[in-house]
């Protein structure tokens, strides 16, 4: 960044060849050697979506996601779809880390802010999820799965009206392995996939959020591949969602997400990004995704 102009290619190379812990050390070292805040320097030198992506990479992931949540709940109206994107497809440890980062950054409890901004079934869903109550064991309880499948049926198709809280508590608290067994039993019991029942029995953001939980339980990689396709091919590219998904999965399962994307849509994710985006922002995301 020093001298005539900014070397964006060097920034891309450095950020994409170091993991999050190494980037944190780079930020600290820059401050001690140069006597300047690297984040402020990047903000002053960069712009647009490239700036947003670079700053996101230089921010510890739990803090970045906490900032995204704050942006979704502050001001007029809550962006529930953003909350669903961030909170629902997370492990317990990820949720705990996000909650800690949120409190450190904003001196407020995430659960309390969610409860204050939401109401009804959405409040129950997001507040319960934020408290990280999911069973994460690999054991399968067949008897329990049959009981839960029956409860889901009775909460929806088996009664007049819908008990949305039953869907919420089972989808948020059961392990992903257990949920897949519950779905299998439910489908044999009702003759329908659980997604079909949710679409029939619920609506709006609650419907979308419950389906998010089902899809994520079925396949983490497929869920994120589908979300990337929606972000790329929707009415106007959703750059913020692209940044959030690619950066948050980069050190988790982005390779598998990219492979799933290619299997689903017949085109490598990197090529799709290359065709839809431009400039240094495109170069950065393509470099992160790789050639999968």
Structure description:
The chain has 292 residues and is mostly helical. It has 19 helices and no strands. Helix 18 (269-276) packs antiparallel against helix 19 (279-289). The model has no long low-confidence stretch (mean pLDDT 92).
Determine the N-to-C terminus distance: 31 Å
Query: From the helix content, strand content and strand pairing, which structural class follows?
Result: mainly alpha
What is the global morphology? Answer: globular
Report strand %. under 5%
- Low-pLDDT stretches are none
Order of helices and strands: HHHHHHHHHHHHHHHHHHH
How much helicity do the residues have? over 70%
Number of helices: 19
Rounded mean pLDDT score: 92
Number of strands: 0
Supply Rg. 21 Å
Q: Biggest sheet, in brief?
A: none
Task: List its traits.
single chain, 292 residues, mainly alpha, 19 helices, 74% helix
Give a short synopsis of this structure.
This protein is mainly α and 292 residues long.
């Amino acid at each position: 960044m020093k001298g005539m102009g900014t070397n964006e290619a060097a920034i891309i190379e450095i950020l994409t060849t170091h993991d999050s812990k190494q980037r944190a050390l780079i930020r600290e070292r820059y401050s001690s050697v140069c006597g300047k805040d690297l984040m402020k320097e990047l903000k002053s030198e960069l712009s647009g979506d490239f700036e947003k992506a670079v700053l996101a990479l230089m921010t510890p992931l739990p803090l970045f996601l906490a900032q995204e949540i704050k942006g979704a709940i502050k001001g007029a109206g809550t962006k529930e779809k953003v909350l669903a994107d961030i909170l629902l497809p997370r492990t317990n440890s990820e949720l705990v880390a996000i909650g800690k980062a949120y409190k450190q950054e904003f001196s407020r409890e995430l659960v309390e802010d969610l409860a204050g901004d939401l109401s009804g079934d959405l409040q129950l869903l997001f507040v319960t999820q934020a408290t990280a109550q999911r069973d994460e064991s690999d054991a399968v309880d067949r008897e329990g799965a049959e009981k839960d499948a029956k409860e889901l049926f009775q909460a929806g198709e088996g009664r007049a009206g819908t008990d949305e809280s039953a869907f919420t508590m089972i989808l948020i608290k059961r392990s992903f392995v257990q949920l897949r067994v519950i779905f299998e039993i439910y489908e044999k019991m009702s003759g329908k996939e659980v997604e079909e029942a949710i679409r029939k029995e619920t609506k709006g953001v609650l419907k979308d959020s419950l389906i998010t939980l089902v899809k994520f339980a079925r396949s983490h990689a497929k869920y994120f591949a589908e979300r990337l396709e929606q972000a790329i091919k929707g009415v106007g590219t959703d750059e913020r969602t692209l940044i959030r998904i690619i950066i948050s999965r980069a050190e988790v399962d982005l390779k598998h997400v990219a492979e799933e994307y290619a299997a689903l849509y017949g085109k490598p994710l990197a090529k799709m990004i290359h065709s839809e985006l431009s400039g240094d922002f495109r170069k950065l995301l393509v470099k992160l995704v790789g050639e999968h």
